[in-house]
Design a protein that fits this description.
Helix 2 packs parallel to helix 4. It is globular and about 55 Å long. 29% of the residues lie in helices and 25% in strands. Strands 5-4-3-2-10-11-12 form a 7-stranded mixed sheet. A 5-stranded mixed sheet has the order 1-6-7-8-9. A hairpin with a 7-residue loop joins strand 6 and strand 7. The protein has one domain: Purple Acid Phosphatase, chain A, domain 2, CATH 3.60.21.10.
Length: 276
Amino acid sequence: MGYYDARISQVFEEAVIVDGSRHPRMVFFSDCHRGSGTWNDSFLNNKVLYQAALNYYWQRDFTYVELGDGDELWENRSPRQIEEIHGDIYSQLDSFKYADRLYMLTGNHDKSNLKRVAGSSFFSPPYYEAIIIRMPHSSQDIYLLHGHQADIFNDRLWPLARWMVRYLWKPLELSGFKDPTSAAKNYKKRRKVEQRLANWSQANNKNLMAGHTHRPAMPKESIHRYFNTGSCVHPNAITCIELDRGLISLIKWTTCVNEDRLVYVCRQVISGPRPL
């Protein structure tokens, strides 16, 4: 077993088990990167799309699952600053929490959320590194993690990666440079991370769902079982994955224009629905 296979397997040895029969409708988001409202708050441009999606899933009794990097805590030091800007979002998420319809994972950019405790923040749900959703049939179980575990620089060396983002790449972005250490911005690195995740899924015959690379993925049946939610920071779009009574779909939320030339938020099915 190679390093990355062993690392991913290790994470799932300590995963939280969720009874999928209690949550017939689930929606999976990742990589919202909620920031502090400044020029580099990537979430801000798509906030209205995200709010519309949350309202849709709340009204239809979906359970909300976030697969990490929900908060941007590499460029911003404190969750409190982010909550002050996006308090309306956290209030919506709190509704899911108190209805027992919220599960939060950590990624590399919000790893410190694992230490978040009630009283230090008005939004303080439990955070996990990995979750296994037990479905009625074991072949349908879904293994959830952020995905940085297949990226050693953003996993084991994450304090160094965070320092580089905070003090090196953040100011260089103003000049148009892209962070080469980011799987979401470096094409070759993204391909390698995705291949490692897909290889683990295939070798272990498991449904594996991740984020991290920001590139949505819905596998073709009988080829591999690796899914990726994409992100909430695509240009004028957010993507997510819905699981609705055993049927899975890849979804895009974006802005559309109707025949009366009115702009509205629309939900588009990219792939599916099909059986898990």
